[in-house]
Amino acid sequence: MKRIQIREIKGLSFEASAEKEEIVKISGWVDVRRDHGKLIFIDLRDATGKVQLVVLPSEKEAHQIADTVRPEWVIEVEGEAKRRPDNMANADSELGGFEVLVKKISVLNEAKTPPFEIGTDGYEVGEEVRLKYRYLDLRRERLQKNIRDRYRALKFIRDYLTDKDFVEIETPILTKSTPEGARDFVVPSRTQKGKFYALPQSPQQYKQLLMASGFEKYFQIAKCMRDEDTRSDRQPEFTQLDMEMAFTEKEDIMNLNEALIIGMVKELMPEKKIKEIPFPRLPFKEVMEKYGTDRPDLREDKNDPNELAFCWVVDFPFFEKNDKGGWTFTHNPFSAPAKEYEEMLMKKENVGEIIATQYDLVLNGFEIAGGSIRNHRPEALKKVFEILGFSDEEIGKNFGHMLSAFEYGAPPHGGIAFGLDRIVAILKNEPSIREVIAFPKTGDSRDLMMDAPSEISQEQLDELGIEIKKNKD
Ligand code: ASP
User: Domains in the chain: how many in total?
Assistant: First the structure.
C-alpha cells in the first residue's frame, strides 16, 4: 500500500458518505499520546496536518506497540480512516472530523525526550536552546507556518516579476570587496596565497553590469553578507529581493514595487489593512523635521497587528561628512544625483547640498527597501569616487571594471533591494527576523546548531598559507 499524507484523508472517497471507511497508510511523528485505560489515542502529525489515531485493545499487536510509543517517535500506521460523528468532531483542527482506527503500527524511529516542548508556540523557550536544536524547534506549528509563508511570499515575487519579463540571474558568492558601508566577510584563496575573495554585501555591481550586458530587467532572491557588530535583530547573512531595470525612472521603480507589495499583501495576508495607497512620498528633510527619524512609524494604532503603514522617503542628501572630516555616501556610491544637481557633482561644488535619486521604503517604522537611479556615465561615477577621497589609482583598482563597462554603452538604469526577512517578519507579526529564517544565527553571529564559526585544521591553514596569531596572554 502506498503512503498518503495526512491531509489527503480529507479527499478520500468516503467524503460523500458518513458510513464508509477507507484503508490508509500514513506516517509521521507522535504529537501526543493519550492512554484511556484500554483505548489509546495518538495524535499523528506529518507535514500536512494532524489526525487522531484510535488503537483498540482488540488489535493486540498494534496496541502493544502503541503502549510504548512516546512523543516525537516516527511511526507508520495502517488503518481505517473514517469520519467522526458530528458531535465528536474537533472543530479546532483541520482534520478534527476524521480519525484512523489502527490495524498495524511500525516504529520507524524512536526519539529521545526533546529538550523543550514542541506543541507550544516556543516564545517561552530560551533562544540559545531553540537555536541549538533548531531542527526540533522548526517542528513547531508556528515555525512550520512561518517558513511556508515565507516561501509563499518568495513564490509570489518570482511569479509576479517573471510575468513582467524579469529574469532571475544568480551572481557570484565568491567575489571582490564592495563599498556598501559595512565590513566584508573574506575568504582566503588557496591557489593565490595572500589573496582573498569577499562575500557580497549585495549584488549591486553585478546587477549593474547585467544592465550593461543588455538584460534590461533583472531580479534575484539574493543572499547578502555583512560583517557588522552585534545588533539584536540583524543577521550577518540575510536575504534580499534585488532588482535592477534599464531605461527606467525613479517613479517606474517605485510604482512597480509598490504594486508588487500591495499584490503580495492582498494575496497572502488579506487580513492586513494598508493605511494609504498610493504610498505617501515624503522628502527626507520634511520627515526628519516632523518625526526626527527617516523611518517614521505612520500607523494610527501602533498596537494593531493588522495595520500596515508604508511610505517612501525621497530626496536624501548624497554625501555626509565622515568622522575624519572627509565625505562619505549616505546610501550607495553608485547612485546618480537628482537631475538638477548633476552639474554640482561634475564640478564637485557644494557637495553637502547634492540630493541623490535614492528612495527608501519604510513600513511601520522599519526600512524595508532602498534603491536609486544609478550613475551610468563613467565620468559622473568617477566624480563620486573622487569626492569620496579615492586616488585615481584606487579608483582604477577598485572600480575600473565598472567604469570600463560603462564606457561601452551602458544604458541608464536603476533598481532597488528589499530586506525579505524583515518584510516577512512584519507580515507575520514576529518580533525578530530569526523567527522567519530557517537556520538563523545568534545576535553575535554564531550558528549554535552547527557550532560555527569553528577552528579549522592545521593542514587547512597550511594549505591557505595562514598563520593564526596567538593571544598575547
Ligand atoms: N544594493 C543596495 C543595498 O543593498 C540596494 C540598491 O540600491 O539596489 O542596500
Answer: 2
Identify the DSSP state of 223: E
Whether 243 is covered by a domain: the verdict is: yes
Cα 316 to chain center, whole Å? 27
C-alpha 396/C-alpha 385 separation (Å) is 10
- The CATH number of the domain where 374 resides is what? 3.30.930.10
Residues of the chain with pLDDT under 50: 16
Which CATH number goes with the domain that contains 75?
Answer: 2.40.50.140
- DSSP category for residue 10: G
The SS3 of residue 264 is helix
Within a domain: residue 25?
A: yes
- CA atoms of 350 and 381, how far apart (whole Å): 17
What is the whole-number distance in angstroms between the Cα of residue 446 and the centre of ligand 1? 25
How far is the C-alpha of 56 from the C-alpha of 101, rounded, in Å?
8
What is residue 296's three-state secondary structure?
coil
The verdict on 67 and 176 lying in the same domain is no
All three cell numbers of 243, joined, read 532588482
Taking the C-alpha atoms of residue 165 and residue 183, their distance in angstroms, rounded to an integer, is 34
pLDDT (0 to 100) of residue 41: 97
Ligand 1 site residues, Cβ closer than 6 angstroms:
202, 204, 332, 370-372, 415-417
Give the residue numbers spanning the domain of 385: 135-436
Per-residue pLDDT tens over the stretch 365-419: 999 999 999 999 999 999 999 999 999 999 999 999 999 999 999 999 999 999 9
Looking at 39, 74, 109, the residue that finishes a domain is 109
- Cα of 410 vs centre of ligand 1, distance in Å, is 19
Q: Cα-atom radius of gyration of the chain, to the nearest Å?
A: 28
- For residue 300, give the H/E element and its range: none
432 and 321 both lie in a single domain: yes
Q: Does 368 map to a domain? A: yes
Ligand 1: atom nearest CA of 331 is 9
| Whether the predicted model's global pTM rises above the 0.70 cut | yes
- pLDDT tens-digit readout, 322-339: 999 999 999 999 999 999
404 within some domain: yes
Which amino acid, one-letter code, is at 40? I
Based on the fold, state whether residues 164 and 289 are members of the same structural domain: yes
The CA 204 to ligand 1 mean position distance, Å, reads 6
Task: Say what the pLDDT of residue 84 is.
Answer: 87
